[in-house]
Amino acid sequence: MKTELQNKLLKKYPQFFQTDRKIYTGEKPMKEEVQELLNQKEMVLPIQFGFECGDGWYMLLDELMANIQNRIINVNRWRKSGKHKYKFLEKWSYNLRIRSAHKQKMRKKLGEWIEKNAPRIYERPLTIQIDQIKEKFGGLRFYYSGGDDEIAGMVSLAENLSYNICEICGSTKDIGYTKGWITTMCKECYEKNPKKESLRWEQINEKNN
């Protein structure tokens, strides 16, 4: 991915990356910049080699990270409100109160006692750390640490959508893939490829157009 597009995502979502670590963007010759990474004392992380995919998936990645960011903001806002402290006891205490043979006043006191004395559950803030973004077998691979089931679903959806988006230009029309070294690309990008004679390209979504 171009330096300009990588930097846009890095600046827009800095919380997802270890920004104290240098990330390869192509600003210097590859050999020189990679050697700088290898010479550092800390372990080189996969993400430090940059976004290992084409420019065509920029919008897909931007949309994915925006959705993840919104999910994290909403979950952490709810957890910060303190309501999560009673999550474990909500249903149990409600059923106990309505099934109690005591009068309304006694049920209210029982509920107050539960909320005051029952153990609380502490939930840490929801976060993710992006470990690697790459293309593999023609599809997007988005590796990360942290998150929850909702975020896992977002990532899975984006990875599946990538098979129907040209990795070169981002088009969703006349999508196919090259055989051998698999690359998802549209017919127009295939026709413009100077090495097209040596590529075996096959359209996959002709019926949907």
Q: What can you see in these coordinates?
A:
- This protein has 209 residues and is an alpha+beta fold.
- Among the domains are: 88-117, no CATH class; 166-209.
- It contains 7 helices and 5 strands.
- The chain has helices at residues 3-12, 30-39, 58-80, 90-99, 104-117, 149-161, 187-192; strands spanning 128-136, 139-146, 175-178, 184-186, 201-203.
- The strands form 2 sheets. A 3-stranded antiparallel β-sheet has the order 4-3-5.
- It starts with a helix and ends in a 6-residue tail after the last strand.
- The mean pLDDT is 81.
Task: Describe the protein's topology.
Elements: H1 3-12, H2 30-39, H3 58-80, H4 90-99, H5 104-117, E1 128-136, E2 139-146, H6 149-161, E3 175-178, E4 184-186, H7 187-192, E5 201-203
Helix pairs in contact: 3-6, 4-5
